[in-house]
């Protein structure tokens, strides 16, 4: 029985939701919440132990770690939000066009997707950054270019399935223009699974942003970003391991929270999947 | 007099419908009968340019008032359609009012005149009593009500011709009778040209002026309804009649 496991699972969903909401709040209201300027260097207080003024201590330049973690939420999650918005928009337009028009347009667009799908995303992102150069904007562009084709493929598949519905045929016979049919009858069926997928991908994309920044390819110091913070703390790992632990913990918690939330959303929005699990 | 014809539709390698010519006049009910798979629905889909994937039109013409017409240009303007399964012909996420709005947009009607036309069409289809119907979702309505709503949308489009593809197959007997009465009344009062696709000869006897019999993708016989029942010419027609009489235990 699938229902037997639900109460325990919904508890973890509530925790994940609260955690994710907390991260979003930090990203939105970060500048109002930080106890110190995340960029303020204070060499007199390098590696300060946690106290009331600096609850998580200071780093190798005397910057307040808590403030940098809070400010980092905005950098990382903001970048992820932009990536997702562009990827979803690209996926909807390319996948929607391919699915609705079909024929040669579909073939050309899907072969284009195949080109992007043949290369592993991280390798493709590295290649893009090699070509474009480092920096936050280029990281966003690289992650978009390495992920949009997945979304386009999924949207196309959903559109092809929804297109066969009787009510779409009825709308066509009623003379409705193709764009109106897409907006009124196809899009409402595409959005829920796409929303679940996008939520699941927040953690994945955050790992990309932080990972590339950790490698020195993404966000550049001194901008507060979790991957940058880990990289900054790397030389002091053996003496001050907590400097690595705090941003690492932030990344891990954010990824876990958004993944759990996305999982729950998919369970709710994709009844076929849940039914399949029950068998 | 408005007429349309069609002929020779087919698919690569396997022709599915060919040598099928139908003429439909305003104010007349033409029944298209035949066994399942004889190509009745496909002929209608070809007429409207909505052939299912894997099939395509290789020839034939559609004449509207004697002039060549593109299938896509007929949709929602010259020809409206009532589909077989009312349950699936409405988007479950949209209200009946939303569906009516879509038809009005095609007809180019907006605002108060649009709402008035909508209410008039739904009243004519027998849904006028309940003021809440525009806010109803398809799952809140019975099959008969949904079929009435589909007929109302067809009326709303203002199309002079109506194709009803097995409009009563998915309904219970009481609802069937009422829907057939409604269609007959609309043909009489509004001068609609109705093409009713069916395999039920009871429907034909009740409604049709003329009957076209289809077998294996061809029209094998076209005759006035009374003549078809008294003197069936084609073997396919005789087989259909015999099957009908056997089912309903009517002596030949």
TrEMBL record, chain A:
- Keywords associated with the record: Cell membrane, Membrane, Peptide transport, Protein transport, Transmembrane, Transmembrane helix, Transport
**What Gene Ontology cellular component terms go with this record?**
plasma membrane
Q: Does the keyword RNA-binding apply?
A: no
Q: Which CDD domains match?
A: TM_PBP2 (cd06261)
Give GO terms: molecular function aspect only. Answer: dipeptide transmembrane transporter activity
- The main location class comes to membrane
**According to its UniProt record, where is this protein located?**
Cell membrane
Q: How does it sit in the membrane?
A: Multi-pass membrane protein
Domain ABC transmembrane type-1: residue ranges: 73-262
Enumerate the Gene Ontology biological process terms: protein transport
- Segments traversing the membrane: 12-34, 77-101, 122-149, 237-258
**Similarity annotation:** Belongs to the binding-protein-dependent transport system permease family.
Recorded hits in PANTHER family, A to Z, give: D,D-DIPEPTIDE TRANSPORT SYSTEM PERMEASE PROTEIN DDPC-RELATED, OLIGOPEPTIDE TRANSPORT SYSTEM PERMEASE PROTEIN APPC
The name this protein carries in UniProt is Nickel ABC transporter permease subunit NikC
What is the protein's species of origin?
A: Methylobacterium platani
UniProtKB/TrEMBL annotation, chain B:
Going by the entry's taxonomy, the superkingdom of the source organism is recorded as Bacteria
Q: What is its main location?
A: membrane
Record's keyword terms, sorted: ATP-binding, Cell membrane, Membrane, Nucleotide-binding, Transport
GO cellular component annotations of the record: plasma membrane
Which residues are in the ABC transporter domain?
1-241
Protein transport is among the record's keywords: no
Q: Name one Pfam family in it.
A: ABC_tran
Q: Which InterPro entries match?
A: AAA+_ATPase (IPR003593), ABC_Ni/Peptide_Import (IPR050388), ABC_transporter-like_ATP-bd (IPR003439), ABC_transporter-like_CS (IPR017871), P-loop_NTPase (IPR027417)
Q: How does it sit in the membrane?
A: Peripheral membrane protein
Q: Where in the cell is it found?
A: Cell inner membrane
Residue stretches spanning the membrane: none
Question: What is an example of a GO molecular function annotated in this UniProt entry?
Answer: ATP hydrolysis activity
Family that this chain belongs to: Belongs to the ABC transporter superfamily.
* PANTHER family recorded: DIPEPTIDE TRANSPORT ATP-BINDING PROTEIN DPPD, OLIGOPEPTIDE TRANSPORT ATP-BINDING PROTEIN APPD
The protein in question is named Nickel import ATP-binding protein NikD
Native source organism of the sequence: Methylobacterium platani
Query: Gene name, please?
Result: nikD
């Amino acid at each position: 029985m699938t229902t037997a496991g639900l109460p325990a699972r919904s508890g973890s969903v509530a925790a994940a939701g609260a955690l994710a909401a907390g991260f979003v709040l930090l990203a939105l209201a970060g500048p109002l919440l930080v106890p110190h300027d995340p960029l303020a260097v204070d060499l007199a207080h390098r590696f300060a132990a946690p106290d009331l003024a600096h609850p998580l201590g200071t780093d190798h330049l005397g910057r307040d770690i808590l403030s940098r973690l809070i400010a980092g939420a905005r950098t990382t999650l903001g970048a992820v939000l932009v990536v997702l918005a562009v990827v979803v928009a690209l996926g909807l337009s390319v996948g929607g066009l391919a699915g609705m028009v079909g024929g040669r347009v579909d073939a050309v667009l899907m072969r284009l997707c195949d080109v992007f799908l043949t290369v592993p995303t991280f390798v493709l992102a590295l290649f893009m950054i090699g070509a474009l150069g480092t920096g936050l904007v280029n990281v966003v562009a690289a992650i978009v270019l390495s992920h949009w084709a997945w979304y386009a493929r999924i949207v196309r598949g959903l559109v092809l399935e929804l297109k066969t519905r009787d009510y779409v045929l009825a709308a066509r016979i009623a003379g409705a223009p193709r764009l109106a049919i897409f907006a009124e009858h196809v899009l409402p069926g595409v959005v829920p699974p796409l929303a679940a997928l996008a939520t699941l991908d927040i953690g994945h994309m955050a790992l990309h942003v932080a990972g590339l920044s950790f490698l020195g390819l993404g966000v550049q110091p001194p901008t507060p970003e979790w991957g940058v913070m880990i990289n900054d703390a790397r030389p002091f790992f053996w003496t001050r391991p907590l400097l690595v632990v705090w941003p690492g913990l932030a990344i891990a918690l954010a990824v876990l929270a958004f993944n759990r939330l996305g999982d729950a959303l998919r369970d709710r929005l994709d009844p076929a999947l849940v039914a399949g699990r029950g068998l | 007099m408005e007429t349309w014809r069609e002929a020779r539709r087919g698919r690569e390698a396997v022709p599915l419908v060919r040598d099928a010519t139908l003429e439909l006049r305003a104010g007349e009910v033409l029944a298209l009968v035949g066994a399942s798979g004889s190509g009745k629905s496909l002929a209608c889909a070809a007429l409207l340019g909505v052939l299912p994937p894997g099939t395509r039109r290789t020839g034939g013409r559609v004449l509207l008032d004697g002039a060549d017409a593109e299938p896509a240009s007929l949709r929602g303007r010259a020809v409206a359609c009532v589909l077989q399964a009312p349950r699936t012909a409405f988007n479950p996420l949209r209200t009946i009012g939303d569906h009516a709005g879509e038809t009005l947009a095609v007809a180019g009607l907006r605002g108060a005149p649009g709402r008035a036309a909508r209410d008039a069409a739904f009243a004519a289809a027998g849904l006028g009593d309940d003021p809440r119907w525009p806010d109803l979702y398809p799952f809140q309505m019975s099959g008969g009500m949904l079929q009435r709503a589909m007929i109302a949308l067809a009326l709303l489009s203002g199309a002079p011709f109506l194709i009803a593809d097995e409009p009563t197959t998915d309904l219970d007997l009481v609802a069937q009778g009422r829907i057939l009465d409604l269609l007959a009344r609309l043909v009489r009062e509004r001068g609609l040209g109705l093409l009713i696709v069916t395999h039920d000869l009871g429907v034909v006897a009740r409604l049709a002026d003329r009957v076209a019999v289809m077998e294996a993708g061809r029209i094998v016989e076209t005759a006035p309804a009374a003549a078809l029942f008294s003197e069936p010419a084609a073997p396919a027609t005789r087989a259909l009649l015999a099957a009908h009489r056997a089912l309903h235990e009517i002596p030949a």
